[in-house]
Amino acid sequence: MKFTDELRQKADPIYEAIFGHPFVRGIAGGSLSGEQLAHYVRQDFQYLTVFCQVYGLAISKSTRREDIEFFNEQIRFILDSENHPHRNFAAVSGHSMKELEQAATLTPTARNYTRHMLYAAHSGTLGELLCALYPCPLTYWEIGLRLKEEVRPDDSHPFREWIEFYADPVVGDICREFASRIDRLAADAGAAERARMEDHYLTSCRMEYMFWSMAYDLEGWPV
Ligand SMILES: Cc1ncc(CO)c(N)n1
């Protein structure tokens, strides 16, 4: 079995928990509050900024031109395309993107997740770095596919744009690009590095679940 298939299998209970998470159910049912949506977008805007920074670190660890090109394209994808789902949530929340893009303190969970990615990137190999990033596109691609199938959103669905963005085959292609690189790097890695790759991947899957909870519960710092 491919390394990425093994990882997906090990993380299956976490994926199932994500599909059933009240925020994801709220996207399906169109039943999230303006505050929950705005809290999500404020934090996710900054999360994606760190994601671009980590792609920069991935470039610095790459020797193959095809890899440098892929990471470069992915930075452009975040900057040019991934603002569409944010705009969908912002519009429904009644806030402008200008407002939600203002620097805000990272919540404990957003801080934890972004520091986890930065740590994996700074301390690890390219394979370790990619394993910390991969649950980001993969969980959203699978959420998109499931919600599209389940809801079959039409024009009257408030989150049609969000669902169709992540269910688009382009996101599936990105996931396959990640998987082929991770599988190639895992084949060349020793047992200790592969164990770190798995640990980073599973941690990010758990962080994805917690990110949804952070938004749903309007998490902030207790003091
Ligand atoms: C936290 C998080 N995970 C994944 C994605 C998908 O890119 C996102 N925008 N935010």
TrEMBL record:
CDD domains: TenA_C_SaTenA-like
Domain Thiaminase-2/PQQC intervals: 9-217
Catalytic activity, reaction form: thiamine + H2O = 5-(2-hydroxyethyl)-4-methylthiazole + 4-amino-5-hydroxymethyl-2-methylpyrimidine + H(+); 4-amino-5-aminomethyl-2-methylpyrimidine + H2O = 4-amino-5-hydroxymethyl-2-methylpyrimidine + NH4(+)
One GO CC annotation: cytosol
Record has DNA-binding as a keyword: no
Gene Ontology molecular-function annotations: thiaminase activity
Pathways per UniProt: Cofactor biosynthesis; thiamine diphosphate biosynthesis
Keywords for this protein: Hydrolase, Thiamine biosynthesis
EC number annotated for this UniProt entry: 3.5.99.2
GO biological process: thiamine biosynthetic process; thiamine diphosphate biosynthetic process
The keyword Iron belongs to this UniProt entry's keyword annotation: no
Any Pfam family hit: TENA_THI-4
PANTHER family documented for this protein: BIFUNCTIONAL TH2 PROTEIN, SI:CH1073-67J19.1-RELATED
Function comment: Catalyzes an amino-pyrimidine hydrolysis reaction at the C5' of the pyrimidine moiety of thiamine compounds, a reaction that is part of a thiamine salvage pathway.
Family named by the database record: Belongs to the TenA family.
Name by which UniProt lists this protein: Aminopyrimidine aminohydrolase
Originating species: Rubrobacter taiwanensis
Organism lineage: Bacteria, Bacillati, Actinomycetota, Rubrobacteria, Rubrobacterales
